[in-house]
């Protein structure tokens, strides 16, 4: 196996493990934080796989990471409207 295949397998295993752990440890229901965390995990896993296969350029991957970090930072620092 080449290094690219091993890298893709490793990213897939880590991403799948993260999503499995997310569902294993979450409480009942889908609230604001649960849905956002799931979306962040999915975006990071899929974009990492695309970047590892060469389908996503480095500057696009950097933009994805900035968007994810900005979304996560805004999610956890925003005030509740309740």
Summarize the structure.
The chain has 82 residues and is mainly alpha-helical. It has three helices and no strands.
How would you describe this protein?
Keywords: Membrane, Transmembrane, Transmembrane helix. The chain crosses the membrane at residues 6-23, 35-54, 60-78. The chain is mainly α. It has one domain. Helices cover 79% and strands 0% of the residues. It has helices spanning 3-25, 32-53, 58-77. Helix 1 (3-25) packs antiparallel against helix 2 (32-53) and helix 2 (32-53) packs antiparallel against helix 3 (58-77). The longest helix has 23 residues, at 3-25. The radius of gyration is 15 Å and the shape is flat. The model has no long low-confidence stretch (mean pLDDT 81).
What is the secondary structure topology, with strand pairs?
Elements: H1 3-25, H2 32-53, H3 58-77
Helix pairs in contact: 1-2, 2-3
